[in-house]
Amino acid sequence: MERLLTAAEMRETEKAAMESGETSGRHLMERAGEGAVAAILSEWPDLADGPHRAAVLCGPGNNGGDGFVVARLLADRGWTVEVYLYGDPDRVAGDARANLEAWTARHPLQPMEQAAGATPPNLLIDAMFGIGVSRPIPDLCMQAWHALAASDAPSGPPGRTVALDCPSGFDVDRGGYFLPEPEGNDPAAWRLLPDLCVTFHAAKQGLFLEEAARRAPRVVAIGLAEDAAATAAATRVLSGDAAEQRAWYRRVTGGEEHLHKYDRGHALVLGGGPGKGGAARMAARAALRAGAGLVTVAVPRDALPENAAQLNAIMLSAMDTPDDLDRLLEDGRLSVVCLGPGLGVSARTRELVGSALDSGRRVVLDADALTSFREAPDTLFEMLNGDCVLTPHEGEFARLFPDLAERGRSLSKVDAARQAAARCGAVVLLKGAATVIADPEGTVGVHAALYDRRVPQLATAGAGDVLAGFITGLCAAPGRDTRAVTELAAWLHAESARTFGPGLIAEDLPDELPKVLAGLGA
Ligand SMILES: NC(=O)C1=CN([C@@H]2O[C@H](COP(=O)(O)OP(=O)(O)OC[C@H]3O[C@@H](n4cnc5c(N)ncnc54)[C@H](O)[C@@H]3O)[C@@H](O)[C@H]2O)[C@@H](O)CC1
Ligand SMILES: [K+]
Questions:
Q1: pLDDT grade, residue 258 (50/70/90)?
Q2: Percentage of the chain with pLDDT > 70?
Q3: Where does AMP bind (predicted)?
Q4: Which of 201, 339, 380, 481 is the most buried (most CB within 10 A)?
């Protein structure tokens, strides 16, 4: 798990460290520059073998200060380095000023206006704006970047582009870029897309909500201790190596050897009527693969034949009315109920959800089970508890939490999910390329299927039903932490898609899972 910091949390951390005398701003800036150069040379080892040409675009604040340090360190390696500054050098202050002066004592400084006419370098550094920005960057800066990033360098290795801390104008809390309003003809022009982003001390939250660079961000230490000030920070779900993945899997699942199928739990998945059963069957198969000892699909009587024709290891029961569900739930061995996939948007679905929640079981609500409450979300929220999981996509989320969805531009996805979980009293998994998992106590995990973990093949019909099934299967065994298994399910889901590769359809996901579980030492 890796801490994801907002701009405010990062500032608090820096401030606390400087106030305690543990470090100084000047020292942090030097470490940031050193870390950036080291990260660049390890990313592109060919740059280490000789002097090349770099252009460093510097802004007026401390991000610019980092840029002056990088420029000096590269010049010390014999590189030809051009530094372009946005704004008046006399207005650069504090630690950035000290590093600006260290640069101008030995090298020339050019105004940003001249950057666009320069020859593209082998390495272009964006040190214009960092976490101090909350509006689109100036046109001049945007144009300088595109002019120098656009084409390959004429000699030496091709042009590589690197953003320090974050790309300029990137929203480190929400992800995405600040764009001019009205957006004008070419909003894409404000989306700087560097090859690499080197971020300092900790990954910034927005970098894992939307992609900020072509490669995964590199985090470099700058000598700050753990984030004492940032206790509420979100974490990134399973960012570690294979050994950490195995340890995480054992921690979340308990790792115990189950001797009897009932120790692994019995999951009940409710399915739709005739011709509407595929989604529930996929969820059920996913639950069985994810570790439930037994899985039963319960469907209306007239849908029994088609389900019987398609299910083998999964058991089948008839369930027409909420009373039928109550009767099924008299079996104390049923430990978790999954409702939603293919169930239909209706009053009957609302009643079934009520029955499942009344029974005190763990409940996973997806798709139609969520949409059925669009007119009166509070009636759902009143019945929920921390052992329930809601798995909305953005549309379903907007139906249950319209105000939080509407505030999407001002509220990060992390905060939207956190507030939703607090309001409804259940674990909320808000889907997307970045999936956010929040519990009612405010703990948030971000699962980012971005950068080298991108899985575009997961955008396929039925993938959400399988995710609900994975959560259900992992929830079936008693004693597991609901939020933790939900995070694990999100990771297993994307990982199964990743290892399967192209051509994936939803049915493949449960059948790919055993390979992923074997890799985790399950
Ligand atoms: N000593 C420190 O505080 C350290 C800061 N660090 C770096 O400093 C960055 C944060 O520095 P700052 O807080 O100075 O902020 P930034 O350098 O990100 O930018 C803020 C500056 O830009 C101006 N500005 C913001 N938006 C603008 C716009 N659209 N047009 C024109 N001007 C605009 C602000 O008035 C301010 O002068 C971090 O991202 C990191 O790169 C690191 O060096 C670590 C140490
Ligand atoms: K930057």
A1: low
A2: 98
A3: 431-435, 464
A4: 339
- In the chain, residues under CATH classification 3.40.50.10260 are 2-233
> Token pair of 343, please?
């169930």
Q: Which of 131, 140, 162, 218 is the best mutation target for the ligand 1 pocket, counting ligand atoms within 8 Å of the beta carbon and taking the most?
A: 131
Q: Which ligand is nearest to the CA of 131?
A: 1
Average pLDDT over residues 202-213: 97
CATH 3.40.1190.20 maps onto the chain at 242-263+339-519
Using CA atoms, how far apart are residues 4 and 464, in angstroms rounded to an integer? 26
pLDDT in tens, 126-142: 999 999 999 999 999 99
Q: How far apart are the first and last CA of the chain?
A: 20
Task: Convert the pLDDT of each residue in 487-507 to its tens digit.
Answer: 999 999 999 999 999 999 999
Spatial distance between the Cα atoms of 481 and 387, rounded to a whole number of angstroms: 8
* Alpha carbons 454 and 460: distance in angstroms, whole number: 14
- Averaged pLDDT for residues 393-420: 93
Pick out the residues of the known binding site for AMP: 431-435, 464
How many CA within 13 A on the CB side of residue 247? 8
pLDDT of residue 185 exceeding 80, the answer is no
Distance CA 394, CA 131 (A): 27
- 140-164: per-residue pLDDT in tens? 999 999 999 976 777 777 889 999 9
Beta strands 110-111 and 266-270: pairing type? unpaired
H or E stretch at 129: none
- Rounded to whole angstroms, how far apart are CA atoms 477 and 336? 9
For 414, the 3-state DSSP assignment is: helix
State the architecture of 2-233 in CATH terms: 3-Layer(aba) Sandwich (3.40)
Task: Provide the residues around ligand 2 (an ion) whose CB is within 5 A.
Answer: 63, 126, 163-164, 168
Pocket-forming residues, ligand 1, beta carbon under 6 Å: 14, 25, 28-29, 32, 59-66, 95, 129-133, 135, 137-138, 164-165, 200, 222
Question: Class of 242-263+339-519 per CATH?
Answer: alpha beta
Residue nearest to atom 41 of ligand 1 (CA): 63
Strand partners, 515: none
ipTM exceeding cut-off 0.90 for this assembly:
yes
For residues 290 and 316, the answer to whether their CB atoms sit within 8 Å is: no
